[in-house]
């Protein structure tokens, strides 16, 4: 499958590498390819420069948001939540129309320091805002409730014995995403319902962040015991 | 231990019965005892009238909020979130001073129908509002992330193999609550940190409610796999 991963941070890189490893044809989208490739300093989160990662992953093609999206069958929004709408606009409304848009971003607001709050929450969600802005895309929210390494390879923790959620208005699009999740190794996929249920998935972040603080490591996961 | 459970809904009843079963001296607080005992109709949630429950649990004493709180060593806020501050005011500031106040309420807002949103969230929490209103109480947030029956008797699901969170500013108060949780049967108690971490615990509700919808039953729980 041709997949565009929008976002060159650690989440985008981790998913892109995993998709390529699983045989997908992967393009990583960024606003300005030359500028992204020219950076030689670690990014704001302390990750190595993208070019270094890109050279180590020659099977993944860096491209502009629009070039990444135009031929993609599946588009993954792995940009930071506050930049997502702008990134998707740059990807091009026409390049998203009719496609599955897997939104894994969280609308984290770091403006008041750490821990971040959410810039959208409770009575709305980033996923719904994206769906409203791009009504022809088939938005599915998933994967945002865990560390990037577990998104891509859940068996790294407890042999994958934990839970991932999907929310979306289009049953076929949720099915495409569910199959992708299963390919990654996710075994317990809970369909929360329509896209408004992303309000539930996104408000997991405030406790995720506190758990990270309490446990000292991000390698933990929610399992819904029932 | 003398425990005042404030609130006569299903959560208050379930915890009061469990505490009495475990040997605590339990009073259930309500605004107007006569009025509460005189009700013969099921409550808004369809639970049998309180008097019926009270007659079946003669070891639990109904009392006004203030009478319940005055002699209590531990006060449990099991009122509905939007009524909690008023109920605690009725219990009496002086009757809460210096005591552990276990807040298990959720600030659910049903004004726009079902599913409810939260009336406080993200950048504040009900627990912090209670602490601010009653600075001499030792507020600990816990148990709000699960069904009442699992709060009181976690072994009813998966032999108790799931997680409960505590948040609070007073380490001794958190220890008192942690021991109580363990008495109930909770085996995995995660201390999230100070009371501001209740923002995390309270924003679990939006996904809890959607999971209830998706799974069709409230007998599920979060386990933090790590």
UniProtKB/TrEMBL annotation, chains A, B:
What InterPro entries does the entry give? NAD(P)-bd_dom_sf (IPR036291), P5C_Rdtase_cat_N (IPR028939), STEAP_metalloreductase (IPR051267)
Q: Which GO terms describe its molecular function?
A: cupric reductase (NADH) activity; ferric-chelate reductase (NADPH) activity
**Record has Phosphoprotein as a keyword:** no
Please list the GO biological process terms of this entry: copper ion import
| SUPFAM superfamilies reported for this sequence | NAD(P)-binding Rossmann-fold domains
Mind listing the UniProt keywords for this protein, alphabetically?
A: Oxidoreductase
**Ranges for domain Pyrroline-5-carboxylate reductase catalytic N-terminal:** 2-107
Record Pfam families: F420_oxidored
> Single GO cellular component annotation?
plasma membrane
Protein name listed in UniProt? Oxidoreductase
Q: Which organism is it from?
A: Agromyces bauzanensis
């Amino acid at each position: 499958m041709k997949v565009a991963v929008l976002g060159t941070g650690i989440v985008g890189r981790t998913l892109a590498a995993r998709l390529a490893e699983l045989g997908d044809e992967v393009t990583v989208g960024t606003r300005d390819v030359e500028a992204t490739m020219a950076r030689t300093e670690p990014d704001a989160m302390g990750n190595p420069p993208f070019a270094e990662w890109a050279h180590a992953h020659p099977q993944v093609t860096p491209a502009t948001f629009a070039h990444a999206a135009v031929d993609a069958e599946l588009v993954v929004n792995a940009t930071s939540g506050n930049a997502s709408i702008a990134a998707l606009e740059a990807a091009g409304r026409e390049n998203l129309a009719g496609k599955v848009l897997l939104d894994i971003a969280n609308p984290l607001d770091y403006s008041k320091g750490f821990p971040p709050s959410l810039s959208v929450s409770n009575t709305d969600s980033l996923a719904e805002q994206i769906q409203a802005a791009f009504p022809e895309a088939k938005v599915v929210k998933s994967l945002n409730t865990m560390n990037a390494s577990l998104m891509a390879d859940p068996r790294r923790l407890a042999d994958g014995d934990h839970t991932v959620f999907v929310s979306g208005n289009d049953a076929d699009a949720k099915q495409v995403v569910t199959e992708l999740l299963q390919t990654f190794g996710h075994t317990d996929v809970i369909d929360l319902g329509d896209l408004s249920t992303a309000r539930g998935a996104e408000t997991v972040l405030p406790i995720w962040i506190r758990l990270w603080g309490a446990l000292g490591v991000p390698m933990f996961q929610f399992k819904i015991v029932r």
